Amino acid sequence: MADIYIRGGWIITVDKNRRVIRDGAIAVEGSRIVAVGKREKLDREYKEYSDIVIDASRKIVMPGFIDLHVHMAQAMIRGMAQYVKLIPWLKDYVWPLQGNYTKEDGKTSALLCMVEMLKSGTTTFLEAGLSGRYGMEGIAEALEQIGMRGILGRHVMDMPGYALEKSIIHPGLIETKENGMKEVLHMYQKWHGKHGRIFVWFAPRTPGAVTIETYREIVAKAKELKIGITMHLAEAKEDLEYFKKEFKMKPVEFCNYIGMLGSNVVLIHVVWVTDEEIKLLAKTGTHVAHNPSCNMKLGSGLTPVAKMLREGVNVGLGCDGGPSNDNYDMVEEMKIAALGQALVNGDPKAITAEQVIEMATINGAKAIGLSKEIGSIEVGKKADIILIDYWKPHLIPMLNPVTHIVYAAQGQDIDTVIVDGKIIMKNRKILTVNEEKILEEAEKRGHEVIERTGIEPIIHWPII
User: Do 123 and 36 belong together in one domain?
Assistant: First the structure.
């Protein structure tokens, strides 16, 4: 007897033996997986005795994706910062737009982002930069309602600068250290661990916006609370100049100096690093979130992922934000990650489809400290499962489900999403929220934010 029995199709387990099961089946009781194996065997126990039986005969079944770097507040301003490099992208577009958000805008943008993530197979995410003005409480309520698994990272800062340019953060986003720390602690006490799905981390701003003393205070508090830290690092060349000028250190060396390396730390981007720094990341067990679409679009460079993996660094995958990607589709991100490493290394074998799927699943789970709970389809783990409809022209014939997922599939092929043993999306319809209402609200509020800031999207062709 099972609550949900998924029968048929291909199962990409990402278990310790990396089994791919043809004509497989999965049984779920409550929030956990209780059986995984061949359909012909499991049918005897579960086919006639389960509450819900899902026919997956034309599906690929695999663990839900874990997006290791997300900016939910940016979903509502996608398309608003094209053709510029990182610092003007932030200074002239993204920060002024976000600096004019209301708490209602923040919640709507988060809902829009989560709907998009679910519909392309993401079941867990790490949000890397919530400001007080976005309404963290409302965003946590939205996460609770929609049913995803998520980590809400809260910004902490005590200076207004970034890289070599001083005082460029928009006034609407400048906060005191006291307010940032206070909200992290409040949200931790109220939300951390709720339903086993909602977690709270520190997400300090980058050097230039945070003093060494505050970084060390964050490291100590995270250790005390046993929570994680995520921070952008070495994203653009300007970062290298800043670290050299201000600290006479390289970026990863600086993180080591302030104590911000280790198994509870996810560093984002990490594009401009040396071989020695990569070895230090591996030695300390520090995780990296790779965001190829963002890095390529902004012309920032590309994380040396193939080298990091060879050295033993745990690398996960992230979509980043609306204006820098411009979507939250992990299926697309996997393909771009694979192609990017082949290109920069001049080697089509630089990373394999298997490694990319690991980055999007079990590596992400390890990075957020949940590899014993999610990231693979195994007995005893949480039932965070997605079903991908492969009965499509671009996926037939189904000769190799692993490479098909990375090189041929699309986010819109995701048919069913299960999180924590609950069906959240079925036949591409989200069951926990009103998608149409969210789209209407986001369309309205997105235009209102643009009107308040007076910033227009960069459009080269005339709109008449």
Answer: no
